[in-house]
Amino acid sequence: MTEVLDPWPFVWAAYALGAGGTLALVGWCWQAMLRAERRRDRLREK
User: Fold this and answer.
1) Which of 2, 8, 13, 32 is most solvent-facing, going by the fewest CB within 10 Å?
2) Is this model's pTM higher than 0.85 or not?
C-alpha cells in the first residue's frame, strides 16, 4: 500500500507565486517609469 501526494496544491501555489511575482515586477517597473518621467520633466523645466 502506497500513499500518493496530491500535486494540485503545489501546482496552484506555483501559479500563485508566478502571477504574484509578475504583478509585483510590473508594479515596480511602472513606478520606476513614473519616477524617471518626473525626473525628465524637472530637468526640462530648468
Assistant:
1) 2
2) no
